[in-house]
Design a protein that fits this description.
- By secondary structure, the protein is an alpha/beta fold.
- It has three domains: 2-58, 434 Repressor (Amino-terminal Domain) (Orthogonal Bundle); 73-173 and 309-340, 3-Layer(aba) Sandwich (Rossmann fold), CATH 3.40.50; 176-305, Response regulator (Rossmann fold, 3-Layer(aba) Sandwich), CATH 3.40.50.
- The chain has helices spanning 2-8, 16-23, 27-34, 42-55, 60-66, 82-87, 89-102, 117-128, 146-153, 176-189, 205-220, 237-250, 262-274, 292-296, 308-325, and strands spanning 73-78, 108-113, 134-138, 157-160, 171-174, 195-199, 230-232, 256-259, 284-289, 302-305, 338-341, 344-346.
- The strands form two sheets. A six-stranded parallel β-sheet has the order 2-1-3-4-5-11, sandwiched between helices. A six-stranded mixed β-sheet has the order 7-6-8-9-10-12, sandwiched between helices.
- Helix 11 links the parallel strand 6 (195-199) and strand 7.
- The longest helix has 18 residues, at 308-325.
- The protein is elongated, with a radius of gyration of 23 Å.
- The termini are far apart.
- Mean pLDDT is 88; it is low at 1-10.
């Protein structure tokens, strides 16, 4: 009777949110139960199944599949050239997290590059044909038109890191600000006083937040922020090499560098060696990501660990919840979900 009453209220079907509220769990958890994921405790599964039965909830996934509108595929879209994807561990770690989480579902994963105008046009046509049920957007710059296209097409989407503080899509990111602060605090505690930073591309919000953390870490310790010690990189090894050369030109006496990625730190290390600077004796070096590069550098690189695989898994959880509900959160007028995972400084010999 309860199920009948819930369904017949104004002819409106109960929503995923109502099931989540009744079961006392999040939307993503309800989605995992509905999609048969084993990553749910038995008690939670029973609570969700009871709420589904009480409310008479029919998942949109089932309804859409019956209508043959489902593709049972999601796309991971990387608006970068393929060369950058294969050069940076960030992307492979993200893909590993996404793939491991999707392996528990019936969904297929497509990897799509959109690093130039031709690839973007082809992607726009592909998405307009609704050939995927949802999209994961990885490494998006502030002026990228893709998120707006997805919103216009009403395709569920989750973004890895917001484009700005006003981000409208659900997003998953690491705590870039706190990670950068911890790097600066570590270097100051080691007695370093002239700390430069090599930033990532500043049209990426996460890179901006790392610079904010760097600045505040210095200010809060009573140090002036010297604009000459901040040089823009581009997340590539070559960019790290160039930026390190510029830092040494501006401030030859610097004694520490915080690089906004391990890849850029590798470029900086090469330049420091060419300039005859010893690490860490003359210049301490800290990276960001804690990728395999950090562990295999000589000396091993102190780095801020961001849980990239976990970020990939969290992105899939959010996306499956969007897909299960049938429409993107933005089109339902819901508050966007922005997940921020903690970072951790991993100390090694370079600092």
């Amino acid at each position: 009777m309860a199920a009948h009453g819930a369904r017949s209220r104004g002819g409106r079907r109960p929503t995923l949110e109502e099931v989540a509220a009744r079961a006392g769990v999040g939307r993503g958890t309800v989605s995992r139960v509905i999609n048969g994921s084993p990553r749910v405790s038995e008690a939670t599964r029973e609570a969700v199944e009871a709420a589904v039965a009480e409310l008479g909830y029919v998942p949109n996934t089932a309804a859409r599949a019956l209508a043959a509108n489902r593709t049972d595929a999601v796309a991971m879209v990387v608006p970068e050239p393929e060369t950058r994807f294969f050069a940076e561990p960030y992307f492979s770690d993200m893909l590993r997290g996404v793939g491991s989480q999707l392996a528990e579902t019936e969904m297929q994963l497509l990897l799509i590059f959109a690093g130039n105008d031709r690839e973007r046009r082809r992607l726009a046509q592909y998405l307009a044909a609704h050939r995927v049920d949802g999209v994961l957007l990885v490494s998006v710059h502030a002026d990228d038109p893709l998120p707006d296209l997805l919103a216009q097409l009403e395709i569920p989407a989750v973004i890895s890191g917001p484009r700005s503080v006003e981000e409208t899509l659900p997003s998953v990111d690491s705590d870039n600000y706190a990670g950068a602060r911890s790097a600066v605090e570590h270097l100051l505690a080691r007695g370093r006083s002239t700390i430069g930073t090599i930033t990532g591309r500043l049209d990426v919000y996460g890179a901006q937040r790392r610079v904010d953390g760097y600045r505040d870490g210095l200010r809060d310790a009573g140090h002036e922020v010297d604009a000459d010690l901040i040089v823009a990189g581009d997340f590539t090894e070559e960019g790290g090499h160039r930026a390190m050369a510029e830092l040494l030109r501006r401030r030859p006496g610097l004694d520490a560098v915080f690089a906004g990625s391990d890849v850029m730190a590798a470029g900086a290390r090469q330049l420091l060696r060419e300039a005859g600077r010893r690490i860490p004796d003359d210049v301490a070096l800290v990276g960001f990501d804690d990728s395999a590069i950090a562990r295999h550098m000589d000396p091993p690189l102190t780095s801020v660990r961001q849980p990239i695989e976990e970020m990939g898994r969290a992105m899939i959880d959010l996306l499956l919840a969007e897909i299960a509900d049938g429409r993107p959160a933005a089109s339902r007028g819901l508050d966007r979900q922005q997940v921020v995972l903690p970072t951790q400084l991993v100390e090694r010999a370079s600092s």
